[in-house]
Specification:
319 residues, alpha+beta, Aminopeptidase, 2 domains, 9-stranded mixed beta sheet, 10 helices, 33% helix, globular
């Protein structure tokens, strides 16, 4: 086994690794070659210092990645991505990747946010007992539960409608700054969330190859954005699932507009539009402990929990 950093030329073998892990673990997280290439080109990843891969010939058997967050408010919440090919599990590769992450993260974090405390995080999906044991042995502890919710677009959909004084507009470049503002303000009280900069918003959200502007919407009141629903579409997942799924990447409402039906209006409008556009299902991720009652809103709109995951965290003490 040869160990070394990832490079931009690794998009295809890394996508093949993701496909093998998805086939085994059913996480709903399948990425195509173009998705991985976009990830490897991100300015938030230092490939030379912040990635590690185990190679068996032309195959990537395991990898770890330490992308920095786009901002840090008091604590740098660094989220590990990585995994081990099912054919190479229980051989110590996962332990080596986790140990490398714990040892390397402080240096990578310090370069991005000098002097800011660091917390490492990673997600473990239900049905991954081996990974659960591995991260707990490394000192990580469970801190939050999340759910992947989905619904079919067949049959009855919620009746579209908007609160008085609110209109729903399809996303446009002119509305993008307002959409980012709503997301940032709405997520200030969301666990684990950090603010999007204009650069990170364009790179990860409205400038991503997966962004679907025609399927994304902004709720307006007196010409001001008060709610937003951003949709992404992942071709590799559609091919794997055998259906086109509109993924709601972001849904947010300004705090002063919560409880007035803005989120329900955005969802109702989006679901009807998704079906007209040929999507067969839709999905989203949600914090199971979300204080805004988001799970209830989504359940009323017909979404059901399809998968759960637990976020594990390890606070790193600087030397």
């Amino acid at each position: 086994m040869e160990w070394g950093p990832l490079t931009r030329e690794d998009a295809r073998p890394l996508a093949e690794l993701w496909a093998a892990m998805e086939a085994e673990d059913r996480m709903g997280m399948l990425y195509g070659v173009d998705d991985v290439a976009e990830h490897l080109s991100s300015e938030l990843i230092d490939l030379a210092e912040g990635t590690l891969a185990a190679r068996d010939g032309d195959r990537i058997a395991a990898f770890g990645s330490l992308p920095v967050r786009q901002s840090a408010d008091g604590v740098h919440l660094m989220h590990i991505t990585g995994g081990v090919h099912p054919s190479y599990r229980r051989q110590g590769l996962g332990r080596r990747v986790i140990d490398w992450c714990v040892q390397t993260a402080p240096e990578v974090s310090e370069k991005a946010y000098p002097g800011v405390p660091l917390e490492l995080q990673l997600d473990v999906y239900d049905g991954q007992p081996g990974l659960t044991a591995l991260v707990e042995q490394a000192g990580f502890a469970p801190v939050r539960t999340f759910a992947r919710m989905e619904r079919s677009l067949a049959g009855d959909l919620p009746a579209p409608g908007s609160p008085d004084g609110v209109s729903i507009a399809t996303w446009s470049p002119e509305l993008d700054d307002g959409a980012r503002h709503v997301r940032n303000e709405a997520f200030r009280d969301h666990w684990g969330s950090v603010q999007h900069t204009p650069e990170s918003w364009r790179a990860l959200i409205s400038g991503s190859r997966n962004f679907r502007p025609e399927s994304s919407f902004v709720a307006l009141a007196d010409g001001r954005a008060v709610g937003v629903l951003i949709t992404h579409f992942f071709e590799a997942r559609a091919a794997r699932r055998g259906e086109r799924q509109a993924w709601i990447q972001i849904i947010a409402t300004l705090r002063e507009w919560r409880g007035k039906g803005v989120a329900s209006a955005l969802i109702g409008h989006a679901l009807a539009t998704f079906r007209d556009q040929g999507y067969e299902s839709t999905g989203l991720g949600v914090d199971a402990h979300n204080p805004t009652g988001a799970v209830r809103v989504y359940s009323r709109a017909g979404f059901e929990i399809a998968k759960r995951s637990t976020t594990y965290a390890l606070r790193i003490k600087r030397a």
